[in-house]
Amino acid sequence: MFIGTTFKDFLLRPQHGQVLSRTKENIDLSMPLSRNIILRGAPIVSANMRTVTGGRMMKAMSSMGCFGFIHRRYSKEVQAEKVREVKRSQSYIIENPLVIHQEAIIGEARELIRKKKVSGLLVCESPGSMKLVGVLSTRDIFGLDSELVKNRMSIFTELICGYQNISMEEAELRMSRRRVEKLPLIDDDANIVGLITMKDLKMAKQKPYTTKDSKGRLLVGATIGASGDYMERAELLVDTGVDVILMDIAHGHSEVIKLAINNFKAKFPGAELIAGNIATGQGAKFLMDLGVDAIKAGVGPGKGCRTRLDVRFGVAQLQAVREVYLATEGKVPIIADGGIEDDGDIISALLIGGASTVMLGSMLAGTDEAPGLVENGVKMYKGETSIEASLEEFNDDENLEALMDDVQAPEGQPRPVKYIEGGVAKVIRRIRGHLKSAVSYAGTKSLIDAQKKMVDTPWLYVNRRPLTEAAKKESFDR
């Protein structure tokens, strides 16, 4: 019943509601991004495109409990730096706190505090040592510049410390009991291994849905290809601390990606890897058998893509996502990539198609967090294989004629998208509200339960035939 269909060919039948209040009741929207990563804010992923996801978008998406993949059109060094910046941007554990040695003078400490805009310093035994001997706060630095730090600091025996793997709850308990704002972290030999501040703890608790690791750092995704410098890029990203890598090529059911995945897994056996794009059940089984941690599905449905127009290959997106779900039997999370025009399409992809998450491009490209300038109320959204996008990579050291030969048959196109005031947070809040409504209409209390209820027997919950044109007009023309 889903052959040749897409999201607007079906409506979901309302079920007996279990939710008393969509605003007051805690409706769970958690869904898996990959085997080992859960998104708790909303199952939304920003597209790995140069006009969608740079470092700023990545930080915003993870901060809201969603996700993204930093695009690979950066040089590998710049891409790794973007990963590093996002990882450092939030954490309740400061892994490399500022340190000064006890024989330094107060004038040095005061200047370091002013320059780094911090409220205090950990004090070590001697230059080059990391052994904790005290803490110096802003209230301790008033006095003669020439006075020694060791004469003004709080000494080690007066401190409350924690160990490296302390939980957020235990750290907060220790700090609250002793009414301190800082908790130095030390190893068995009293060497400094980190610092927790009450300010960072409170910030972490204010955002319970944030996509973060055990240390409170934002999770970060980045993109690689399957040829060229992809292994060097992957190595740099892994060394930088990326949490998951997306191996992204236009035709993911191919020997090219098979070789690349095998090489990647041989060198980085513990790294989380997502791969795509594919659009068939055979392609899904192919990637699943290669051991990927999630599959990205969709060939040609996006507004920035011309593959279906120009080469006539592709599968209608609802059919494609559902084929992939059935072929993998729900064993591997699926990212539905492309063809999403509104929030209702997201819900169809999740509840009917079987996707675990949905990737958005044009719906996010108009936000402040997306790279690019606002001109006359619009921003440019460019398909990754468009001539315009390819030429942005051209530099004087390259052969322009050779580059143009490679892009004479582009499968991407640029298009303007309306600028969205209020940033990406405004878009995600709206989507979260509609997802909560969908859970209520589905007769469940969580998004994953709504999917489990409907995805295996959709004919019980949707019209058995695609909507007529009159029904589509009644439903969608507003």
Automatic annotation (TrEMBL):
<keyword id="KW-0479">Metal-binding</keyword>
<dbReference type="InterPro" id="IPR046342">
    <property type="entry name" value="CBS_dom_sf"/>
</dbReference>
<dbReference type="InterPro" id="IPR000644">
    <property type="entry name" value="CBS_dom"/>
</dbReference>
<dbReference type="InterPro" id="IPR013785">
    <property type="entry name" value="Aldolase_TIM"/>
</dbReference>
<feature type="binding site" description="in other chain">
    <location>
        <position position="305"/>
    </location>
    <ligand>
        <name>K(+)</name>
    </ligand>
</feature>
<keyword id="KW-0560">Oxidoreductase</keyword>
<keyword id="KW-0630">Potassium</keyword>
<protein>
    <recommendedName>
        <fullName>CBS domain-containing protein</fullName>
    </recommendedName>
</protein>
<dbReference type="Pfam" id="PF00478">
    <property type="entry name" value="IMPDH"/>
</dbReference>
<feature type="binding site">
    <location>
        <begin position="298"/>
        <end position="300"/>
    </location>
    <ligand>
        <name>NAD(+)</name>
    </ligand>
</feature>
<comment type="similarity">
    <text>Belongs to the IMPDH/GMPR family.</text>
</comment>
<dbReference type="InterPro" id="IPR005990">
    <property type="entry name" value="IMP_DH"/>
</dbReference>
<dbReference type="GO" id="GO:0003938">
    <property type="term" value="F:IMP dehydrogenase activity"/>
</dbReference>
<dbReference type="GO" id="GO:0046872">
    <property type="term" value="F:metal ion binding"/>
</dbReference>
<keyword id="KW-0129">CBS domain</keyword>
<feature type="binding site">
    <location>
        <begin position="248"/>
        <end position="250"/>
    </location>
    <ligand>
        <name>NAD(+)</name>
    </ligand>
</feature>
<feature type="domain" description="CBS">
    <location>
        <begin position="93"/>
        <end position="151"/>
    </location>
</feature>
<dbReference type="Pfam" id="PF00571">
    <property type="entry name" value="CBS"/>
</dbReference>
<feature type="binding site" description="in other chain">
    <location>
        <position position="300"/>
    </location>
    <ligand>
        <name>K(+)</name>
    </ligand>
</feature>
<dbReference type="GO" id="GO:0006183">
    <property type="term" value="P:GTP biosynthetic process"/>
</dbReference>
<feature type="binding site" description="in other chain">
    <location>
        <position position="302"/>
    </location>
    <ligand>
        <name>K(+)</name>
    </ligand>
</feature>
<dbReference type="InterPro" id="IPR001093">
    <property type="entry name" value="IMP_DH_GMPRt"/>
</dbReference>
<keyword id="KW-0520">NAD</keyword>
<feature type="domain" description="CBS">
    <location>
        <begin position="153"/>
        <end position="214"/>
    </location>
</feature>
